[in-house]
Amino acid sequence: MEPKNILPYTENARRVIFFARYEAAELGSANIAPEHILLGLLRENKSLLDRFLRSDASLDSIRTRIEEASGGTSPAVSLSAGDDSRQTSAGRPERRKNPRKKPMAPPELLLGDEVQRVFTHAGEEATRLGAKNIGTEHLLLGLLREKSVAAGILRDNGFELAGAREEVSQAAQQTRIAFSQKAAPYQQSSTGTERKLNIPVILGTPRQGAMSIHAARFIYGQVTERPEISSEFIDIGALGIPVNDAGQSIKSAKFSASMERADALIIVTPEYNHSFPGLLKHVLDTCLKEYIHKAVGIAGVSTGSFGGARVIEHLLPVVRELGLVCIFTDVNFGNVNQTFDSTGHLLDQAFVKRTDDFLNELIWMAKTLRYGRENIAK
């Protein structure tokens, strides 16, 4: 059972809670107490464990003190890293049968009143520090705020609330500074303003008079209204790519340069005979490295009610193989003859909101992947 709190818990904090349940079960306790959270922290947080080991107290003496305070009678288990032995209360070592086996999931135990207050304190500390999650450092602060055996052990080993708060605050500030410095190339251009995303819109059919051009022009218009995006309209029928060969050997310098500049792509394609136009794949196949780790959003167009759902389904494995990352939001222009009039005027205003949601998701993914391309080693 994960304790309730306004903020979510980090993966490390959840492991602390798991280990606390395990420790409480080992000690025969009916519920989880702050002392078990402390033992969980010692298992999970290596820096905290190292500070305890540098003090006069040993892990065995800490656990013995906790065991005596809780009235448990189970043998004390060493928490030292790599220790595969169990030590009985008489001091005789007892080998574990399966030292490498992970502990089984402990039974569900109730949270004692003290430990519930510890979790509340931890949430308050995380909020005060501007954290988005409750981490192990906030659990430590929560323990120090609650009067308990665990807090006494922490104080006996040199931990005080004011000092611990200062350490956690400084560490959080250093992390924010390091992140902002690393993210600066992504967030700003050389002029100090945020760099625009380049997101071209590709019309995926050469068919003359196709209603798909109205859908593509509509999306292109929505894109160009976004001040954070620069774009261009690419008609695959106007590229002049040869059809007597295929692949990168017939690469178009203009199309390749557009794909190289792009941070993301929008492909607007009709559904022909349950799939996409052959020329669309022919054009996409002329590039490869230009697409790697870039986002793509797909808009399907059909005269039927499915709205190009089948063409999107067929196109997904193609763009994935090209190295593009497809977002989970699509735009489906079903019954396209009723969605636009013959001049391209939008008749169904619901598509404004749908396209807005589509672009929001694409922009988020484009920014995330651009940061990854520029700052994270492959």
Low-pLDDT stretches are: 73-105
* Beta-strand proportion: 5-15%
Shape verdict: elongated
* Most strands sheet: 6 strands, parallel
Radius of gyration: 30 Å
> Between the first and last Cα atoms, what is the distance in angstroms?
38 Å
Helix segment tally:
14
Helix content: 40-55%
Sequence of secondary-structure elements: HEHHHEEEHHHHEEHEEHEHEHEEHH
| Oligomeric description of these chains | single chain
- Record field, number of beta strands: 12
Overall residue-averaged pLDDT value:
81
Provide an overview of this structure.
- There is one protein chain.
- The chain is α/β, with parallel strands linked by helices.
- 48% of the residues lie in helices and 11% in strands.
- The radius of gyration is 30 Å and the shape is elongated.
- The model is unreliable at 73-105 (pLDDT under 50).
Task: Give the arrangement of secondary structure elements.
Layout: H1 11-26, E1 31-32, H2 34-44, H3 46-54, H4 59-70, E2 85-87, E3 93-95, E4 110-111, H5 113-128, H6 136-145, H7 149-156, H8 161-187, E5 197-198, E6 201-203, H9 212-224, E7 229-230, E8 233-235, H10 253-261, E9 264-270, H11 278-284, E10 294-301, H12 309-321, E11 324-326, E12 331-333, H13 336-339, H14 350-375
Parallel strand pairs: 1-4, 5-7, 6-8, 6-9, 9-10, 10-11, 10-12
Antiparallel strand pairs: 2-3
Helix pairs in contact: 1-2, 2-6, 5-6, 6-8, 8-14
Provide a compact summary of the structure.
The chain is built from 14 helices and twelve strands. Helix 2 (34-44) packs antiparallel against helix 6, helix 6 runs antiparallel to helix 8 and helix 8 crosses helix 14. It has 378 residues and is of the alpha/beta class.
